[in-house]
Please model this.
Amino acid sequence: MPEGHTIHRLAERHRKLFAGRPVAVSSPQGRFAAGAAQVDGRVLLDTAAHGKHLLHQYEGDVTLHVHLGLYGKFTDGDGDPPPAVGEVRLRMANGEHWLDLRGPTACELLDPLQVDALHARLGPDPLAEEDDGGVKAFKAIKKSDRPLMALLMDQSIVAGAGLIYVTEALFRAGLRPTVAGRRLTRRRWDAIWQDLRTLMRTGVEDGRIDTVHSIHLPEAMGRAPRVDRHGGEVYVYRRTNQPCLVCGTPVQTAEVNARNAYWCRVCQRTR
Model:
């Protein structure tokens, strides 16, 4: 599932391609036909992201809400759209650009009250322009005995951070994924929150997840670049039994809350 930086990148791209002009909206697949008809020909005013949720704001107080889930994917191009191939849930076009959406978990229209309800059930987004230090998230974490990894991946607590960012932020903080939330200090939370903001902003800019410091990059260490379908240089994510880039200890893995957790038993001593 795409992490929050990808959704923010999509919001920026869709704003660039379509905002400020009327948009032709259709549903070649037919599953979103009624919704498409409601916004077809309206001006797309703006786009936004909250965590893993993408919002297209149309004139008339109507918002298109998209959650890609595991299988959702956008494609776009210039000029007129090509013949629809496959299950195209949503198609947008304005004469200069086109966009297709396939396989999302959610593709729906929301009114203002529903948009407010969506925001209310999501935690703070590290990529939000306004930053209160993730106070709401910290309060929820301090009340819980759940593993810190599970809490940070709970979208009602922190919106947008997925397994890769959470795994890497915990490594960089020296905390094991199994640490109980109630044990987290405010000092350590502030460091994790700011680290997530920095790492995810870099992800928005570069379009990939890189979490290692410059001294641990391949060229600095004389090692081969990481080869993985997710791309990017990371410390422990999906590096089971490979040497830790900092201390050389084999990376550990175990299941935590039905997800694979990765950590270094030396660099992440706090458990």
Notes: The chain has a mean pLDDT of 96.
